[in-house]
Amino acid sequence: MLQITDLTKRFKDLTAVDRISFQVNPGEIFGFLGPNGAGKTTTINCICGLLKPDSGAITIDGQDVVAGGDQVRKMLGVVPQEVALYEEFNAIENLQFWGGLYGLKRSQLKSRVDTLLELTGLKDRAKDAVSTYSGGMKRRLNMAAGMIHQPKLLLLDEPTVGIDPQARHQMLDTVRHVAGQGTTILYTTHYMDEAETLCDRIAIIDHGRILAMGIQTEIQQIVGENRLLKVTGAFEKSTAESLPQKMKDLVLLSIQENEVLYSLPIKQTTGAFLEILMKSGFEIDHLAIKEPSLDSVFIKLTGRELRD
Ligand SMILES: Nc1ncnc2c1ncn2[C@@H]1O[C@H](COP(=O)(O)OP(=O)(O)OP(=O)(O)O)[C@@H](O)[C@H]1O
Ligand SMILES: [Mg+2]
After folding, report:
1. Residue 74, domain member (yes or no)
2. Which of 104, 125, 144, 303 could form a disulfide with 109 if both were Cys (CB 3.0 to 4.6 A apart)?
3. What are the C-alpha distances in Å from 236 to residues 11, 243, 255?
4. pLDDT digits (tens, 9 = 90+) for 227-263
């Protein structure tokens, strides 16, 4: 469905997207997981033609996005990270506006508006000005606007940022529903739990590069059946380096100024680790234990957390 090959986008000296390649298969929810500034929005903006790539190819159903023009762009819906709605207009008027831009006919537009108000649970408030909506309602209307023309491929850019947990659940259910009806979805997020529960396949992106990609169990194999142990405090570098000799299967991953990162198989107890840590003369301020998860994959790949 969507095929991206060696996509690169630079802003002056900064390479925001650095030779990334991935494909999203028909009907799939593909998760694009990465922290602030990873290059998620830049990638989306290249796909929908808002930005011109420096190099690489983007095709939808085999047609080039840059050269393909309107025909290709009509297959595509975008739900931008920043809500793009007219606050003084109501939901119906906003949807009519976006439908008009896509050239929907009157009768077609009316039925689409009805369907989407139903889908997003905004029917009761459809005639109230958007300025009176909650953050979650605005997000849902924003999503409806991106789908007004029934795109085959929907690009969702962090659609749950800044909304409460209940509204977030509703949003995720809506995304699942839309995917269930056959729409292919590229879903960007910095919440690993969303990527875990929602997405069929995931790419982890940071500093414009894809660090890992696959179904969840494949990505998890990067950390395997290992916990990550992050110790913060005061210690000698040589002490930190010597610990793996004192404990079987303990692996040193990285050392920074006051922080050292180890991995340890889950069958080994963290109590035993703590004991040798204290005996060795570590002054521990903090010990963080991460069970195997996408988050621990990210830490292992980058040495830092998804959200810091
Ligand atoms: N128009 C621009 N001009 C210059 N630099 C830009 C521009 N747009 C993005 N950048 C930079 O490119 C990098 C990637 O930004 P991008 O918005 O794609 O990240 P993101 O993954 O969407 O992050 P966030 O989670 O904060 O939305 C960042 O370093 C950002 O500052
Ligand atoms: Mg972004």
Report:
1. yes
2. 104
3. 41, 11, 10
4. 889 999 999 999 999 999 999 899 998 898 899 999 9
